[in-house]
Amino acid sequence: MQTAIDCQQLSKVFGQGQHAVKALDNVSLGIGKGEFFTLLGPSGCGKTTLLRLIAGFESPTEGRITLDGQDITNLAPNHRPINTVFQSYALFPHLTVAENVAFGLKMLGRAAAEARERAQAMLDLVRLGEFSGRRVSQLSGGQQQRVALARALAPAPKVLLLDEPLSALDLKLRKEMQIELKRLQHETGITFVFVTHDQEEALTMSDRIAVMSAGRVQQLGTPREIYTRPGNRFVAGFIGESNFIPAQITAGYAELPGGGRIAVDPGVPDGPATLAVRPESLALSAAGASVPGAMPATVTNAVYFGTDSHLYARLQDGTRIVLRLPASAKLPDEGAAITIGVAPGAAQVLAAE
Ligand SMILES: Nc1ncnc2c1ncn2[C@@H]1O[C@H](COP(=O)(O)OP(=O)(O)OP(=O)(O)O)[C@@H](O)[C@H]1O
Fold first, then answer.
1. Atom 26 of ligand 1, residue of closest alpha carbon
2. Nearest atom of ligand 1 to the alpha carbon of 58
3. Which residues contact 298 (CB under 8 A, 6 or more apart)?
């Protein structure tokens, strides 16, 4: 994969002295050409700051950014072949839909007829071809979002930055627009850099995700890699749900609370560790059952959800565990003794806390 955007050791500090905030701390990452790349993390982790550095609205305190191998670190935003779609859409309410889309093209010095034609083509692309004469104020939120997308795509940028573009939409519209965005990215082949704090949105839409926290990239990988092989406790807890089970590693085996053990990667060093295991990867058995990775436990609560059930239990060392079971599973009573099994491939070994 060819690299479009390359961020090299980027840091950004806002303010000075006592009030200084390090919004980005030595971030290096490459975004591939034509990739749907997502920056995911909780509020304040630095995603928007990274996007604004790529757009050129801020300059880095340290580090550099290249686009197709060219240094753009000090290039003004309007000289970068990069466009941004904001959460607020930032449309002109007194202009028509077509005028909004053509606006940027005219600013770039394109002839009026050419701008009109291009605007119409972009509106067709976002399926708003028939709305070109309407005022923006006469459109729904989802339609306004499409106009903002058409406007951002009109100058054919190499990279489109999207800062939580769907967060103002209700859930149903949001799901529709997720599909729409994927289609647009696919059809245009433009590199998309998408910012969200919604892990499900990131998992379903992205080719690759950079999970961020406290100004750093915690893990970079495909949705599957990040879900099945979280690199640390932050990622395991932020993306989906995880159980954290204390274990002792000895010669390629993890000793579990209650005496059971499972094989782990032979490269894992001896010593204390934490196993991250997804709730759907744990198995329920009767007390005393001899199953792989057996952990004796006591049921604290069981909840039937219709689609599945959640079983809450406590291991012998007090660790709280949640299991996700098929809806057809018979749920044990509160206080019952059970055995929880963990299959060898299902546990990800993390460094002990
Ligand atoms: N212009 C600024 N001046 C001072 N501090 C700032 C400025 N912009 C951002 N910060 C701080 O930098 C940190 C990262 O902010 P940023 O907006 O990048 O986070 P974010 O992950 O996008 O969060 P959110 O999802 O809430 O938008 C925060 O602590 C924020 O308060």
1. 43
2. 1
3. 313, 314, 335, 336, 337, 338
pLDDT in tens, 124-138: 988 899 999 999 988
In this structure, which amino acid lies at residue 101? Answer: V
Place of tokens 């209700």: 170
Going from the Cα of 190 to the center of ligand 1, the distance in angstroms, rounded, reads 27
Q: Whose CA is nearest to atom 20 of ligand 1?
A: 44
Q: Answer yes or no: is pLDDT of 353 > 70.
A: no
Provide the terminal-to-terminal Cα distance of the chain, rounded to the nearest Å.
Answer: 36
User: What interface predicted TM-score (ipTM) does this complex get?
Assistant: 0.94
pLDDT greater than 80 at residue 101: yes
| Paired strand residues for 192 | 36, 160
Strand partners, 8: 64
The rounded distance, in Å, linking the Cα atoms of 146 and 303 is: 41
Alpha carbon of 181 to ligand 1 centroid (Å): 25
Q: Per-residue pLDDT for 261 more than 90? A: yes
Q: pLDDT band at 69, cuts 50/70/90?
A: very high
Q: Which residue has the tokens 């949705």?
A: 223
Q: Whose CA is nearest to atom 24 of ligand 1?
A: 43
pTM of the model: 0.88
Distance from residue 59's CA to the centre of ligand 1 (Å): 14
CA of 348 to the centre of ligand 1 (A): 32
Report the range of poorest mean pLDDT among 19-28, 157-166, 173-182.
173-182
Specify whether the CB–CB gap between 101 and 123 falls below 8 A: yes
**Distance between CA atoms of residues 226 and 231, nearest Å:** 8
pLDDT digits 0-9 by tens, 203-212: 999 999 999 9
- The token duo for 164 is 């939580």
Tell me, what amino acid is at 192?
F
Residue owning tokens 């006469």: 138
